[in-house]
């Protein structure tokens, strides 16, 4: 801390060093430019990010929007108890967990596979073209993506047409109308949208592998698969580990947009997740308290998971989120 | 498969074993298939948007329009709601991106200064929000109480600074050579001068990345429009208009729409099917034009954000 006298351009080296609070305020004054550059945004942060946390109290009340805070009726954990006895909530919880697991496993496997395949391409122009194309769906909005997916899966869409022509089916299938299929469609959709994007980190990690390892392996007579298995995969293992751990922290975050935009009355039992539950109870049915209780549950579990994940990553000596 | 390739280190590309060739063939086929799967739905939509609307209902449009027309685009751009929505989308993207990039860079600069007394406090205050948030309803009530409902600024203020952006800009500044910033201070430049005339220009690559992410996010947003401004038509955006059209005609594409289209338009020169395709293109073209040119920037940005050493 001492060298900041030089940095702030004020020489107080000759003075006696002030201590404690006094020193703090002195520094604060010296660094007023930095304070001016960051504190307004901290205030913004408190208003938009921390103030809403106060709203959690709604989850413990029978909240009536017309009443003031002091007039609300407090009900303790009533809404939480209701949630865990509610069949719909439990179904929603199941859907959330299943879909985020699909997201996690499928996302990892496909992205790593694609990264390995891309890494084996020697034709650099071709590689670049594939990469650029594979990033495309990531940049499209889910509204556009869901629209495209719906047209593709429609009874008169290309998938049905292909299956009919190959005589694999006799009549058109209503893909989004069959609840049991929703998870599969969800998995395919997120892979379609993000597989290319997710390869970036792995490809970056692959470039950091020491090339002499490959040369040594070649001299030892290792083929393509052996090199992939014994050099490339172990080389990116730290990245895989840290991303896997961090993603476990987001286990209740299975996304909102794909389920909402691809969901309909027919597949509701499989597509509805926690976020949609919160939205439907809160915004559509004005049951603020129940909705808030569900989102408190989600945040608390996520918080614990994220915290544990981050600590686990730290303990394993891997890189952390920040 | 694992046949060995005996080759002299200096002449690598010449000899390939059979196994290698099979691998390459399979690999290139798979990657081409990936490109087809990625591009086909999009190219199909493009073809439908340029095809005569009533003709499209017969089906059979794949990669190329059968009866070329610009009517669909003409209709979309002459529709007042859609024109207004496009304008709002452009505005929120431009204003939101500029403000986000500028403010994020400023905060990131302060928390990259090791001597800053509030560094830890500011950093932790921001990072904590990754773990904890108020959730939908409390945020909604806050936005309502702040009087932001029915206002354009509801698209800007709530998402002003993202923690991820902050982290990648900070990492970038920290990796700048120290002496550049120090020599500026020794020359008597204040924090603001250093920030504007040294840090900002040097950070162009990472700021381009943040600008791309923010721009894409702003352009693609529809949920905040739905949540806060769904009853204010002049504040609607392109994505939200598209979402409404998509919700309206849920499961089917062509068949059911035909009657609806005929009833709605009378002339049925355009159909919801064609309008959907056209709007999908309008809503995605700006992004498709931009992202390939920023590829090297965002790839680098993701590397910093993803694997921080």
Automatic annotation (TrEMBL), chain A:
It is found in: Cell membrane; Membrane. InterPro entries: MetI-like, MetI-like_sf. Keywords: Membrane, Transmembrane, Transmembrane helix, Transport. The lineage of its organism: Bacteria, Bacillati, Bacillota, Bacilli, Bacillales. It comes from the Bacteria. It is a multi-pass membrane protein. The chain crosses the membrane at residues 33-51, 97-118, 173-191, 228-252, 288-313. Belongs to the binding-protein-dependent transport system permease family. This is Binding-protein-dependent transport systems inner membrane component. It comes from Thermobacillus xylanilyticus.
From TrEMBL, chain B:
Its main location: membrane. It is a multi-pass membrane protein. It comes from the Bacteria. Signal peptide: none annotated. Residues 86-294 form the ABC transmembrane type-1 domain. Keywords: Cell membrane, Membrane, Sugar transport, Transmembrane, Transmembrane helix, Transport. Pfam families: BPD_transp_1. GO terms for biological process: transmembrane transport. It is found in: Cell membrane. GO terms for cellular component: plasma membrane. The chain crosses the membrane at residues 21-43, 90-109, 121-143, 155-173, 194-219, 273-294. Belongs to the binding-protein-dependent transport system permease family. This is ABC-type sugar transport system, permease component. It comes from Thermobacillus composti (strain DSM 18247 / JCM 13945 / KWC4).
